[in-house]
Design goal:
The structure holds 2 protein chains of 2 kinds.
Chain A: H1 3-13, H2 15-53, E1 56-61, E2 79-80, H3 82-90, E3 95-108, E4 111-118, H4 121-130, H5 157-160, E5 170-173, H6 175-180, E6 188-191, E7 194-201, E8 212-216, H7 217-223, E9 229-230, E10 232-237, H8 240-253, E11 257-261, H9 262-305, H10 307-315, H11 320-358, H12 366-392
Parallel strand pairs in A: 4-8, 5-7
Antiparallel strand pairs in A: 1-10, 1-11, 2-9, 3-4, 3-10, 5-8, 6-7
Chain B: E1 3-14, E2 17-29, E3 34-39, H1 45-52, E4 60-65, E5 68-69, H2 75-85, E6 86-89, H3 101-111, H4 116-129, H5 145-156, E7 163-167, H6 175-190, E8 194-199, H7 202-207, E9 210-215, E10 218-224
Helix pairs in contact in B: 3-4, 3-5, 4-5, 5-6
Classes of the chains: A alpha+beta, B alpha/beta.
């Protein structure tokens, strides 16, 4: 028999006595790991979006509010489409693409979908050619990248956020819609009475774009009877510098519009992440304190009910160090059990609920689990230090007494 | 001499008043003796037994164990002494309730870091010796009081101590089991071990070679005889 057998036997005999403290620790760790895992995933998602959209600027209706970059055109307010044309003809330095959008809610086979009209880049080029201009050729000083890259195809739409060609009866559909409505490339769908041919199913982005149907801007304007308006104009610059300097220029050009950079747009999301992060730390602290208090209380009770047993062990030759080890090892096992259990459950909760609640794809963060287990172990040991000392200081003569 | 007590006194303070549990006791116990400490409840018998076991430091006087001053040793050294040289038997057996009979007997060996396999074999032999070969995997609650005391006796021998200190070892047993336990203690004594039994039962004292009576903390020699 070893010390661990002694502890395991005692735990098997009295499982409920320590259950509350293990549960308190496990709940704390579960909440922390779940919230923190989702927050980290969200932060990574924002960072990724920032990296991809770093030089983008949005032109929005003056009264539009912002929560999410991808949903910026869903405010229900509009700008004249003419602004996009004015912008294209202004030939501003470093502007690579202009993507006006108009979004209306509708239904597809009884499901709510977001229909977004976009203008293919080929139309800007055609318009510019009629005017004899040299669209998007004004290079930004200091940029290493070449200006006026051609916009992508339907397959690269997610990354490029623009498409070179799109006919008025063609549509691109988001991954979620394609999956739930079982629509494949080449299929025909009808939106607001308009038949549209699906030319591509977009890859999953983890954003609201997964629930959108993209078609030609003028088709949406016609079938939604909105007139020649857009909900937002996305301007893709060649670098961060141009995005920054564009804000001032655009503000002067379009006094009826709100001009924001991607950094400002994602600030709201970063703020939410920060709040989530603080919340997870608070929940963790509160529940760990409760777990610690619960463990300390349970260990004190355990020492109290085992006074005679401790006295007997001392009569048989146990040293105070052995008695301390007996209780601290037990506390360590409970801390580890609570920590590991909480980390596993928290990770599962994050994996299941993260995509549903936060709209982000969650991956396991092993370091977080290890941190949580380490803290749980430390809390359990600290909480049990005084009870263990008390046990080690018990009078061995207790073995002769009825306790 | 195994134990030498010189003017050993133990006083407690109870509600601000000094209570003398043991008054200037001087006695010697030789190796291999079978000594019964008799006296009324509260006469100081258990106090004396605790002092002999290195668990209760006297207020005054010296306790020598094999010529060494017991209470000049550190707490850890005294624990080691109890582990290796002294075995205890208790009135209420003091078995660990969540361990099996076998594990209870292994406990002193666990404290002495005896290898697990050796612990197991030795514990099995000891349980067989006290007639509990068929009850090794039973927990104390599944054993009769007599069987529990026999497990406790087997546990006492786990580290092969030279001294056994027993506190009312038959106090909770029926007459038949009492005789059985006394027979086993007698066997231990015949193997050369020193036995000190605290009892208020005259029939238990009858088995001892020497009887010390305690009255209000004072020890007096009552009888000495050679046990056959």
């Amino acid at each position: 028999m070893r010390l661990r057998n002694l502890i395991a036997s005692e735990l098997r005999e009295r499982p409920t006595a320590m259950l509350a403290s293990v549960l308190a620790i496990a709940l704390g760790v579960t909440a922390f790991v779940a919230i923190r895992t989702v927050t980290l995933a969200s932060e990574q998602s924002v960072a990724k979006e920032l990296s991809a959209l770093g030089a983008n600027v949005l032109l929005l209706p003056k009264t539009a509010s912002l929560q999410d970059y991808y949903g910026a055109d869903m405010n229900g307010q509009t700008l004249p489409e003419e602004h996009a044309m004015t912008l294209a003809l202004a030939n501003l330095a470093g502007v690579e693409r202009i993507s006006p959008r108009l979004t209306v809610p509708t239904q597809l086979d009884g499901r709510n979908v977001t229909l977004t009209g976009i203008l293919p880049q080929s139309e800007f080029q055609a318009m510019n050619a009629w005017g004899g201009g040299d669209l998007f050729s004004n290079a930004h000083q200091g940029c290493r990248r070449a200006c006026a890259r051609p916009a992508g195809t339907a397959e690269t739409f997610n990354a490029e956020r623009a498409v070179q060609d799109l006919a008025e009866n063609e549509a691109l559909i988001g991954a979620d819609i394609a999956e739930t409505a079982k629509i494949a490339k080449g299929a025909w769908i009808t939106l607001l009475g308009e038949p549209l041919r699906v030319v591509a199913v977009l890859s999953r982005t983890g954003t609201v774009d997964d629930s959108r149907v993209f078609t030609h801007l003028h088709t949406v304007q016609r079938i939604a009877k909105t007139g020649e308006v857009v909900g937002a104009i996305e301007i893709m610059g060649c670098c961060e510098d141009v995005a920054g300097s564009l804000v001032k220029t655009l503000g002067e050009m379009f006094p009826d519009a709100k001009v924001v950079t991607i950094s400002q747009v994602v600030e709201a999301q970063v703020g939410v992440n920060r709040t989530m992060s603080q919340l997870s730390a608070l929940v963790f602290a509160v529940l760990i304190v409760l777990g610690g208090a619960s463990t300390a209380s349970a260990m004190y009770a355990n020492v109290s009910e085992r006074r005679r047993e401790v006295g007997t062990l001392m009569a048989l030759g146990a040293t105070p160090g052995f008695v301390s080890r007996l209780f601290l090892t037990k506390a360590g096992i409970l801390g580890l059990a609570g920590g590991i259990g909480g980390a596993v459950v928290g990770t599962l909760v994050a994996l299941v609920l993260g995509p549903r609640l936060a709209g982000v794809s969650v991956t396991v963060v092993p370091g977080l689990g290890l941190l949580a287990v380490g803290v749980s172990l430390a809390v359990a040991l600290l909480a049990s230090y005084l009870p263990a000392r008390r046990a080690a200081g018990l009078d061995p003569c207790l073995c002769f007494k009825e306790v | 001499m195994l134990f030498q007590l010189n003017d050993v006194q133990k006083s407690y303070s109870r509600r601000g008043e000094a209570v003398t549990a043991l008054a200037a006791a001087s006695l010697n116990i030789a190796a291999g003796e079978y000594v019964a400490l008799v006296g009324a409840s509260g006469s100081g018998k258990t106090t004396l037994l605790s002092i002999l076991g290195g668990m209760l430091a006297p207020s005054e006087g010296r306790v020598l164990f094999e010529g060494q001053s017991l209470y000049d040793l550190s707490m850890v050294e005294r624990a080691q002494l109890r582990r290796e040289r002294i075995g205890f038997v208790f009135q209420t057996f003091n078995l660990i309730p969540y361990l099996t009979a076998l594990e209870n007997v292994q406990t002193p060996m666990l404290l002495s870091d005896v290898p697990e396999e050796v612990q197991r074999i030795r514990a099995m032999l000891l349980l067989e010796r006290v007639g509990l070969g068929q009850r090794m995997e039973h927990k104390p609650s599944e054993l009769s009081t007599g069987q529990q005391q026999r497990v406790a006796l087997a546990r006492t021998l786990a580290n092969d101590p030279r001294v056994i200190l027993a506190d009312e070892p038959t106090g909770n047993l029926d007459p038949m089991m009492r005789e059985e336990v006394l027979r086993i203690l007698g066997e231990f004594n015949q193997e050369g071990r020193t036995i000190v039994v605290v009892t208020h039962d005259p029939s238990v004292a009858h088995h001892a070679g020497r009887v010390l009576r305690m009255v209000e903390g004072k020890v007096s020699e009552e009888r000495t005889r050679k046990v056959a």
